[in-house]
């Protein structure tokens, strides 16, 4: 597995693959993407980063966890719980519970550099492309003021009317997190993280921010515009598990039968969106990236 330590090395590897008609897959060190069949697996080892007043400039191999910890020590917040590299975070455009306030990585990233076998580009459009048409090398990402205190309110809810009214209630406080998990048989786990303490009956209260331990196996991103749509999808398909983060426009749903999603706008968690598949035809017309 070739290791690349600079943008020039990456360009040379991609150029050689292009000339020799070999398939390439870009790798960091996260566990978020399954290996696809390729002739060459390029392991990106560029891991330098530098934090400035309200942003970080990081190479693709830099650890998101290290950047997050370093930012916290400076009273700054990196708004993702992703546990892999910067390149993986951007290639997947990974949603996190903090996406309620800060959005997906595509929304808090200012620019991205990526390399093809022909030249280097600076364009945010590669975010979410799953490595299908270029190798991400470097990015400028916004950081935010670290909250002095956070409070998470949680409850298991079966009454969907109460679930929806709870969303409306907590939305008024500009939450860091509004996360709804579908458990089974019509039960939902509600999580709301605020930067202020409020008196709320019917909800347990804890300090800290909720996170989700998950894999991409048998999972799909389904378009849902609000909690009402999320609830309607849950009632119709009763998945193994699902969740939605308010303001992201998607639910992540785990089902064993993909046909259950036939009536919805969706794509597999391991696959790029249709837009990125179309972009691949422009940036990778020889189809060397897998």
Please provide a written account of the structure.
The protein has helices at residues 7-19, 64-73, 86-92, 99-102, 105-108, 160-171, 227-237, 274-283, and strands at 3-4, 24-27, 40-44, 49-51, 55-59, 76-77, 109-115, 120-122, 135-142, 144-145, 151-157, 177-182, 188-194, 204-207, 219-223, 241-245, 250-254, 266-268. Helices cover 24% and strands 29% of the residues. A hairpin with a 3-residue loop joins β4 (49-51) and β5. The chain has an eight-stranded antiparallel sheet with strand order 14-11-13-12-16-17-15-18. A five-stranded antiparallel sheet has the order 4-5-9-7-8. Strands 1-3-2 form a three-stranded parallel sheet. By secondary structure, the protein is of the alpha+beta class. It comes from Acidianus manzaensis.
Tell me the major beta sheet. 8 strands, antiparallel
Decide which structural class fits the backbone: alpha+beta
Q: Provide the number of structural domains.
A: 2
Uncertain runs with pLDDT below 50, 5 residues or more?
none
Strand/helix succession: EHEEEEHEHHHEEEEEHEEEEHEEEH
Strand residues, percent = 25-35%
How are the strands ordered across the major sheet?
14-11-13-12-16-17-15-18
| Count of DSSP H/I helices | 8
Q: What is the number of strand segments?
A: 18
The share of residues in helices is: 10-25%
For the CA atoms, what is the radius of gyration? 20 Å
Query: Briefly, what CATH class of the largest domain?
Result: Alpha Beta
What's the pLDDT, averaged over the residues?
A: 93
Choose one word for the global shape.
globular
